[in-house]
């Protein structure tokens, strides 16, 4: 296809042990999917109405690159999350059908400009400027689902400068991965290349320039990086 300007680069995520990469179509995120995190944010845990938001595909930060501290904030927060990457899609799927879409797993950070989020909440405004900014989605290499089998006992954790900031098991999620994907499929047509952040446990707090972080999904995936 001929284009009037150069075509943007295709955002992609490395795949552990492979030269091929995973192309990113969209990034979906679920909010307040751990009860303790919902409570620390002043919300009531809710198993009836999952809350979703999005990030642009090119928000991914991969391959151990530094994470630039974003503009327009003085309160950047980390939110460690298991990430699932979809190898197929569909609409109006049951949880059983939706669970079969998963191609691979990783661990990522949903970075948040918390001060801008608070301002948006106070005005009843959208969260886009707080969640969907450049470099807001650091993510590890993906591990194919054929090689990774996370369970309710699998622990996600975030260590910053040697200090444990967040730690929980996947069994603490209010909505399971199949349930998340099923709900999403009623709102959007899911497709191969979609990436879904599955929620963060309690313990979110600030990151500053120079901080080093290490996020883990059990022994499946690891993300290490630095805020610059």
Give a written overview of the molecule.
By secondary structure, this protein is of the alpha+beta class. The protein has helices spanning 35-40, 95-99, 114-123, 128-131, 177-187; strands at residues 12-14, 21-23, 27-31, 51-55, 60-61, 76-77, 80-86, 102-109, 112-113, 137-138, 143-144, 155-160, 163-169, 195-197, 206-207, 212-217, 221-226. A hairpin with a 3-residue loop joins strand 16 (212-217) and strand 17.
Q: Using only CA atoms, what is the Rg? A: 17 Å
Give the fraction of residues assigned to helices: 10-25%
The helix/strand class is alpha+beta
Let me know the average pLDDT. Answer: 96
Give me the count of strands.
Answer: 17
Q: Name the overall outline.
A: globular
Key words describing this protein structure:
228 residues, four-stranded antiparallel sheet, 5 helices
